[in-house]
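Milestone M4 deliverable, item 7.
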Amino acid sequence: MQIENKAIGINYIDIYVRSGLYPAPLPSGLGTEAAGVVTRVDPGVSELKPSDRVVYAQSSLGAYSEVHNVPVDKLALLPDAISFEQAAASFLKGLTVHYLLRQTYMVQPDEVFLFHAAAGGVGLISCQWANVVAH
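Output delivered:
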């Protein structure tokens, strides 16, 4: 699938790639998460069409580019109510919170739990989500 990126997500792992801590094959782009518009659909793909709004995370390097080829299994449809910027900034963090609060441990109503570093993106979304579950 070919995506015309409209907004990219910056993640701390990008710093590791830039510093060489996580080696990347050269030449290489940076970034693994973004939101944009489908411009080309792979053969056999029926769930997406050109002009669909999408968001993706954990793709191959190259999200900092204007156009990025992304496997269909990394893409999610993006509702019109969510901007490209909101999606690019929060998608991977939201996936992380879902994993933590729904798959690792299912937080129950009226349950007290401690979340360290709640000031970051994952922490903020976690506390908001847990607050909804609690009430």
